[in-house]
Amino acid sequence: MGFASDLTQVQDGHIRLAVLRLLDEQPGYQANDSVLHSAVGAMGLNCTRDQMRGHLAWLAEQRMITTIEIAAGLTVATLTERGGDVANGRSQIKGVQRPSPKGG
User: Fold this and answer.
1) Distance (Å, rounded) from C-alpha 81 to C-alpha 99?
2) How far, in Å, are 33, 80, 84 from residue 28 at the CA level?
3) Per residue, what are the HEC states of 47-101?
4) 16 pLDDT exceeds 70?
5) Do 20 and 59 contact (CB within 8 A), yes or no?
6) Average pLDDT over residues 23-40
7) Is 89 left (phi over 0), alpha (psi -120 to 50) or beta?
8) Residue 58 has pLDDT above 60, yes or no
């Protein structure tokens, strides 16, 4: 595996953790893909809207979120209990960066 591939996997893990943490902080534990795309970008984790939808699909396959397409090109993601456990470091899933301990 090359350096670029390693970097992509690391970035993917960070984006997925960011999505879970963002959802964990939202009222109703949900947000749409446009808001998540902007928020993740503001964290310095750049991805396209299409890539964001891919991350949301992956997280849904892993049962960390549920998704519903409410309009053409707009998907709402909702955090599951499993996703909340991963976001808060109580559980680990390969493909999602483990969060740093809080406090300190």
Assistant:
1) 16
2) 15, 11, 12
3) CCHHHHHHHHHHHHHCCCEEEEEEECCEEEEEECHHHHHHHCCCCCCCCCCCCCC
4) yes
5) yes
6) 97
7) left
8) yes
Nearest CA to 88 out of 36, 24, 43 is that of 24
Gap between the Cα atoms of 32 and 67, Å rounded: 9
Domains recognised in the chain with CATH numbers: 3-87 (1.10.10.10)
pLDDT of 4 over the 80 cut:
no
Count the residues in the chain. 104
51 exposure class (CB count in 10 Å sphere: 0-12, 13-18, 19+): middle
- Of the candidates 63, 90, 96, the one whose C-alpha atom is nearest the C-alpha of residue 77 is 63
pTM of the model: 0.91
Q: Could you tell me the pLDDT band of residue 84, with boundaries at 50, 70 and 90?
A: very high
